[in-house]
Amino acid sequence: MPSETGTSPLCSYELLGWYERAQRDLPWREPGVSAWQILVSEFMLQQTPVARVLPIWTEWVRRWPTASATAAASPADVVRAWGKLGYPRRAKRLHECATVIARDHNDVVPDDVDVLLTLPGVGSYTARAIACFAYRKRVPVVDTNVRRVVARVVHGRADAGTASPSRDHADVAALLPDGDVAPRFSVALMELGATVCTARTPRCGLCPLSQCAWRRAGYPPSAGPPRRVQTYAGTDRQVRGRLLDVLRASDSPVTRAELDVAWLTDTAQRDRALYSLLADGLVTQTADGRFGLAGEE
Ligand code: SF4
């Protein structure tokens, strides 16, 4: 049984009981999924909805079940397999991460947060998520959803405001129950933020938590500036995506003219997007002037 000191504003019994009933059926949470495969899911889930990650992750771990298998793939194949998940630099970083784990860690994902933080593409959130979800360590795992739930339940605010890693980690560490139930508490807190205590329309009628400072205070509005709505259409990200679509669809490098038809709206923007892809190493230019996915010749 989880310990419950009575001092925490967030009752672990309520949260864990709800999670038992309401958790989503996600394949990377299944027993037997390896630390490497959990790491892959965490890379993919950064800023990307679960529904888009599911098919790509499933195929990825079938094709490359280990870090060494991923490391042995060509960078171009990895970028191609990333498909339309977006933010494709993550694919390249994942490949680099696989290479380091295979070469320096005997093909085993490290379990220590400080060692995890030395891996390419692994930041503060991802390191703690792997330590917690793959190795059941009692470490605070703080993503956007968790910050929002804590802001509401504990601090009575509509949103979390500017991130402060040390303060955010201390906030969540203070809520973690003792013992081996802590990792389950962490995933349950994330799940609550992702599915019930959402940013725009929290579903308080479905919330398992009987104590919530924001609800108790009558839902005072956010004190910060209004949330910016992220647009995609017309951005450099969209143009980069279009250019990568052309390259993914081809088994061999393509000419500049074939690439140019991907974006005719603004040629300067198209050039900028192409140069940024070249600078990121996601696209390479062959000796005869054609363009291919990372490392293709
Ligand atoms: S009561 Fe509403 S605002 Fe408070 S944690 Fe639950 S869903 Fe979020």
Please tell me about this protein's structure.
The chain has 3 domains: 12-22 and 139-216, Helix-hairpin-Helix base-excision DNA repair enzymes (C-terminal) (Endonuclease Iii, domain 2); 27-135, Endonuclease III, domain 1 (Orthogonal Bundle); 236-293, Orthogonal Bundle (Arc Repressor Mutant, subunit A). α2 (35-45) packs antiparallel against α8 (124-135), α9 packs across α11 (182-195) and α13 (236-248) packs across α15 (267-280). A two-stranded antiparallel ribbon has the order 1-2. The chain contains 15 helices and 2 strands. The protein is globular. It is mainly α. The termini are far apart. Mean pLDDT is 93; it is low at 1-6. It has helices at residues 12-22, 35-45, 50-63, 67-72, 75-82, 89-104, 113-116, 124-135, 144-153, 165-175, 182-195, 213-216, 236-248, 256-260, 267-280, and strands spanning 283-285, 291-293. It binds iron/sulfur cluster.
